[in-house]
């Protein structure tokens, strides 16, 4: 990294107003340049036919190169497009959105349209004047090595993939052998064409390959004692036979797999009442032993066997989710039994047979072989009569399968997001640490918030969030927010199965395999490769001092103004990624490589002393104040929309692209995440005379879409307190609201805005105008 | 000869499905039935069946041997093959039903309300043997007559209008029944068939 002179905020920005894409027809570009000149005393202003054209870009570049300008405002299209065109050697560039938010969404030539455009320019100039070009966070000694935890198929595949990509691996396995559960299976569901027959698991070969790989340091009988540091520089303490050692790694892939659901909890399905009622795992062992399948009780050959699917899965009293593999596993086992003995009758009692991927072909094969499939829910298992009763959905009657030789309970998977062999650390806090932050209504203890806020809604019951696999932490993170990798719904370690797979809420630590969602071996192997790619990005990112997903490449990071910090600890508690620790005195210490740059800490800080070089409370405050507020007699209300940059702002842009119209009284400021919104902005806006304020961002809750996991949930929590502020100003509480929108909501956002504008229009003007 | 039922008399038998798979013509293919119901839905006579092929197949899997062996579904099948043509899983439904019917008879089960079918079959075969043709009037009359004079009168009157309509449109023959030329040859063929059948 070549260090240049300390960057400074632009003193002489240039303003370039575009007339292309319909902007010139919609608004008076010269008048906008004049706003810059007269109100902000900007020396360099220009109007261009198309700023993005070669000539347009060259003209700006010439000014930058000549040193005429040290900051650039391009008043043209949204900052979400053409970002590469308007890049001038690190000079701060801010875009005033005159296209999507003005020319394409407002009637041309009208007074309100001109006023909106002028405000866009005012906000952009204010913003650029307060922007420091960010320098990367200090690069530490980083390690290219990956730690992979768990030596099952997922962990071993991850190790191999990392080595292929040029990264050495330390593979830590707590037992004395590699292979995980796959070692115990009597065969594997087909994973290669033609996907019809039971195959060899291939695990032995993989174990050999891993052992032979000189870049994989296999540590058997080893556990992680604790983990400290941040991406690029984790220090992990390992323990092997009572001996501790410390390794430095750049990133961690957690592949701790699953534990089968505890069948002793399935007394209602007869488990424990007869030795001939077994789990799928137990049957695997019997099949693996080879020879004729015999009853445990009396050694008689098994001629009639029934599989009870979803034993403990998809059951609100046990595991509410589908364990994904047990249907395939029962098919596999029934097929093995039927093929070994053509006279045997194998019944599979299922509610829905779930055969993801290629398992459908396997299912057909089992049907052809004569495995008998019965659709219905098992209602009773009678160990005495060895009878499974079920309600046949296709016959509409209760059917008894009596006189069975063996009954198999297809039990599901529980993720190893905790380690059952490790004692729970801080039992009273463990649960909150594991799941607390995913539930928007959970108490955020240190910050002093009440669940649901003072007047907030009653927290709904979210039982699936309450399920935490028993055990202690697997990495024992030395983090302020506790030793765990937080879990998502149902106890799985992930942040969002669809949008952010593999990512945990601890940057630099990625999960793969059934620890993150139920999956089979083939999926696990694929998952391993995905998680490794993420882990390598984390190492690269930490090396360059840039952020990871979703603000990939962002150089800015939060800085704490320690002189003002009151050590209230809100930031350290609320950071969705556990990036902030505390020193002995309680001062927040930010670990930039763990940080995802959401600004939630900034929004949390009651004294606004957390800042980013290019995004901070003071900057947005100034932008809010930069806009012209017409007086109360003008009948031109003003509405401030703080729109999340990840979904809400793009949805608005898309609405503009679709030429949807919305109220010209709306002034939109993009924010990194609703979590970064400080209440100060709201009160500034109210005092400035805005008539309404809307926070527009992603969905919160257990099915959240927030790109920073809990930013929008935290914003909701904070906004529940706005009522008090409004009351103290004698203002109606409808003036401040939140709207949840998704990226696909482009047709809905204009409606949301217009409805709010109508509501605000119905209220008296904000009496603070002109104060 | 057909293998006997593994556990006759049981209402539910775990071995019954296997027995059908192994012993009924096309039974192994029945294992592929995915219970879509296209067969029963396509069947022109499905409304007259107690269960229809789809449900009957599920009953087989559920081991309901008594109910299956006394079902009238096999007897009602007219061998139109619509189900076979349409079944997405290529289950030879018609063959299975025909062979099940044979098994019902062979193992001494009588389809429980198959009297009508038997009466109809008798009338049909009487006409076929006598003329080598089915004469609608005679087949119908003989069939109705098998239920007694009162029923004969009632059913005839109910269908009189339809019959007159047919006659008007030239769709029903009046006069002597048509007949094949070589009645003796026909009889020889039928006798031979009966002989082959009785060989088992
Ligand atoms: C009965 C049954 C049959 C199955 N059959 C099939 C099949 O035929 N085909 C198929 O594709 N899938 C099958 N599956 C699913 C398959 O077992 C899983 O997908 C697979 O085992 C996942 O591999 P993994 O490496 O992620 O986890 P695991 O196999 O659970 O391995 C995890 C490894 O991590 C180690 N570990 C755990 N915690 C720690 C810790 N804290 N520190 C260090 N090491 C740790 C464990 O000792 C273990 O070696 C079956 C599942 C069941 C229940
Ligand atoms: S995979 Fe099948 S048996 Fe397992 S939980 Fe899902 S539906 Fe039930
Ligand atoms: S809250 Fe967001 S910006 Fe602040 S430290 Fe955490 S991840 Fe970084
Ligand atoms: S059409 Fe074929 S698959 Fe569908 S129910 Fe009938 S026999 Fe089964
Ligand atoms: S062949 Fe028989 S069962 Fe099939 S549709 Fe025709 S009549 Fe119905």
Quick tags:
heterodimer, A: 771 residues, alpha/beta, Rossmann fold, FAD/NAD(P)-binding domain, 7-stranded mixed sheet, 29 strands, B: 200 residues, mainly alpha, 2 domains, 12 helices, 0% strand, globular, binds flavin-adenine dinucleotide, binds iron/sulfur cluster
Gist of the model:
Chain A is an alpha/beta fold and 771 residues long.
What does this molecule look like?
The complex is a heterodimer of chains A (771) and B (200). With 771 residues, chain A is α/β, with parallel strands linked by helices. Among the domains of chain A are: 1-133, Rossmann fold; 146-257 and 416-425 and 468-544, FAD/NAD(P)-binding domain, CATH 3.50.50; 260-413, FAD/NAD(P)-binding domain; 559-601, Alpha-Beta Plaits. Chain A is built from 20 helices and 29 strands. In chain A, strands 13-19-14-15-16-17-18 form a 7-stranded mixed beta sheet. In chain A, strands 7-6-5-11-21 form a 5-stranded parallel beta sheet, covered by helices on one side. In chain A, strand 17 and strand 18 form a beta hairpin. In chain A, helix 8 (280-288) runs parallel beside helix 9 (326-340) and helix 9 (326-340) runs parallel beside helix 10. The longest helix of chain A has 24 residues, at 521-544. Mean pLDDT of chain A is 92; it is low at 440-457. Chain B is mainly alpha-helical. Chain B has 2 domains: 15-106, no CATH class; 116-198, no CATH class. Chain B is built from 12 helices and no strands. The N and C termini of chain B lie close together (7 Å). The mean pLDDT of chain B is 90. Chains A and B meet through helix 10, strand 16 and strand 18 of A and helix 1 and helix 4 of B. Bound molecules: flavin-adenine dinucleotide and iron/sulfur cluster (4 copies). The site of one iron/sulfur cluster has 16 residues of chain B, from helix 3 and helix 4.
């Amino acid at each position: 990294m070549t260090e240049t002179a300390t960057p400074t905020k632009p003193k002489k920005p240039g303003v370039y107003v575009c007339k292309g894409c319909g902007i010139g027809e919609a608004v008076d570009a010269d008048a906008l340049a004049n706003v810059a000149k007269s109100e902000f005393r900007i020396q360099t202003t220009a109007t261009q036919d198309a700023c993005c054209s070669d000539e347009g870009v060259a003209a700006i570049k010439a000014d930058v190169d000549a040193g005429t300008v040290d900051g650039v405002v391009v008043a043209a299209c949204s900052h979400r497009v053409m970002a590469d065109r308007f890049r001038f050697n690190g000079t701060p560039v801010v875009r005033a959105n005159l296209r999507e938010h003005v020319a394409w969404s407002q009637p041309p030539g009208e007074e309100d349209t001109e006023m909106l455009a002028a405000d866009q320019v005012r906000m952009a100039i204010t913003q650029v004047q307060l922007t420091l070009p960010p320098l990367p966070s200090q690069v530490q000694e980083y390690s290219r090595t990956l730690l992979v935890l768990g030596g099952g198929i997922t962990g071993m595949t991850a190790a191999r993939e990392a080595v292929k990509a040029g990264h050495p691996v330390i593979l830590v396995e707590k037992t004395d052998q590699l292979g995980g559960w796959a070692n115990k299976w009597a065969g594997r569901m087909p994973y290669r064409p033609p996907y019809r027959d039971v195959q060899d698991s291939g695990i032995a070969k993989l174990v050999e390959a891993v052992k032979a790989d000189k870049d994989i340091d296999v540590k058997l009988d080893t556990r992680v004692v604790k983990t400290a540091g941040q991406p690029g520089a984790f220090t992990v303490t390992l323990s092997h036979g009572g001996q501790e050692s410390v390794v430095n790694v750049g990133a961690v892939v957690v592949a701790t797999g699953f534990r089968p659901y505890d069948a002793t909890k399935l007394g209602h399905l007869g488990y424990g009442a007869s030795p001939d009622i077994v789990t799928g795992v137990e049957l695997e062992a019997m099949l693996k032993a080879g020879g004729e399948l015999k009853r445990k009780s009396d050694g008689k050959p098994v001629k009639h066997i029934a599989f009870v699917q979803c034993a403990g899965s998809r059951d609100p009293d046990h595991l509410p989710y589908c364990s994904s593999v047990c249907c395939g596993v029962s098919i596999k086992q029934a097929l093995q039994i039927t093929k070994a003995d053509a006279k045997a009758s194998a019944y599979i009692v299922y509610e829905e047979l779930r055969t993801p991927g290629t398992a459908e072909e396997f299912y057909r094969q089992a049907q052809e072989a004569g495995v008998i499939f019965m659709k219905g829910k098992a209602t009773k298992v009678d160990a005495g009569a060895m009878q499974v009763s079920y309600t046949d959905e296709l016959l509409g009657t209760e059917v008894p399968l009596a006189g069975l030789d063996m009954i198999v309970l297809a039990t599901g998977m529980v993720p190893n997001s905790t380690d059952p062999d490790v004692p729970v650390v801080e039992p009273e806090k463990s649960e909150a640490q594991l799941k607390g932050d995913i539930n928007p209504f959970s108490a955020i203890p240190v910050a002093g918030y009440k669940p649901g806020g003072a007047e907030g809604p009653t927290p709904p019951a979210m039982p699936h969030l309450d399920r935490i696999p028993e055990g202690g932490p697997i990495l024992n993170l030395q983090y302020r927010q506790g030793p765990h990798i937080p879990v998502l719904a149902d106890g799985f370690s992930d942040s969002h199965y669809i949008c952010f797979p593999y990512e945990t809420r601890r940057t630099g630590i990625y999960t793969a395999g059934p620890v993150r969602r139920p999956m089979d071996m083939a999926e696990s192997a694929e998952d391993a490769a995905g998680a490794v790619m993420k882990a390598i990005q984390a190492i690269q990112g930490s090396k360059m001092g840039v952020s990871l997903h979703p603000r990939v490449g962002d150089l800015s990071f939060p800085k704490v103004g320690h002189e003002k910090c009151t050590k209230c600890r809100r930031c350290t508690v609320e950071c969705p990624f556990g990036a902030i620790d505390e020193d002995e005195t309680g001062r927040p210490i930010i670990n930039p490589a763990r940080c995802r740059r959401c600004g939630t800490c900034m929004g949390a800080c009651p004294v606004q002393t957390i800042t980013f070089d290019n995004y901070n409370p003071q900057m947005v405050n100034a932008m809010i104040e930069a806009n012209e507020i017409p007086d109360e007699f003008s009948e031109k209300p003003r509405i401030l929309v703080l729109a999340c940059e990840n979904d809400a702002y793009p949805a608005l842009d898309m609405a503009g692209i679709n030429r949807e119209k919305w109220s010209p009284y709306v002034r939109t400021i993009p924010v990194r995440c609703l979590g970064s919104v400080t209440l100060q902005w709201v009160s500034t806006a109210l005092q400035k005379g805005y008539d309404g304020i809307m926070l527009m961002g992603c969905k919160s809750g257990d099915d959240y879409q927030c790109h920073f996991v809990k930013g929008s949930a935290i914003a909701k929590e904070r906004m529940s307190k706005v009522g008090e502020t409004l009351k103290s100003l004698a203002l109606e509480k409808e003036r401040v609201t939140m709207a949840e929108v998704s990226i696909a909501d482009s047709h809905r956002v204009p409606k949301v805005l217009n409805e709010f504008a109508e509501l605000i229009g119905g209220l008296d003007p904000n009496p603070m105008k002109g104060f | 000869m057909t293998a006997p039922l593994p556990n006759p008399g049981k209402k539910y038998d775990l071995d019954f499905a296997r027995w059908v798979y192994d012993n009924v013509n096309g039974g192994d293919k029945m294992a592929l039935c995915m219970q879509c119901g296209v067969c029963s839905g396509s069947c022109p006579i499905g409304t007259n069946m107690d269960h229809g092929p789809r449900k009957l197949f599920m009953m087989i899997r559920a081991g309901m041997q008594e109910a299956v062996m006394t079902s009238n579904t096999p007897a009602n099948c007219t061998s139109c093959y619509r189900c076979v043509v349409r079944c997405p899983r290529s289950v030879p439904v018609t063959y299975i039903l025909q062979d099940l019917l044979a098994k019902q008879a062979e193992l001494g089960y009588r389809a429980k309300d198959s009297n009508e079918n038997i009466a109809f079959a008798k009338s049909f075969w009487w006409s076929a043997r006598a003329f080598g043709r089915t004469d609608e009037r005679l087949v119908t009359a003989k069939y109705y007559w098998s239920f007694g004079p009162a029923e004969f009168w009632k059913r005839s009157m109910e269908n009189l209008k339809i019959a007159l309509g047919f006659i008007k449109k030239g769709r029903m023959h009046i006069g002597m029944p048509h007949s094949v030329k070589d009645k003796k040859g026909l009889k020889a063929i039928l006798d031979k068939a009966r002989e082959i059948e009785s060989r088992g």
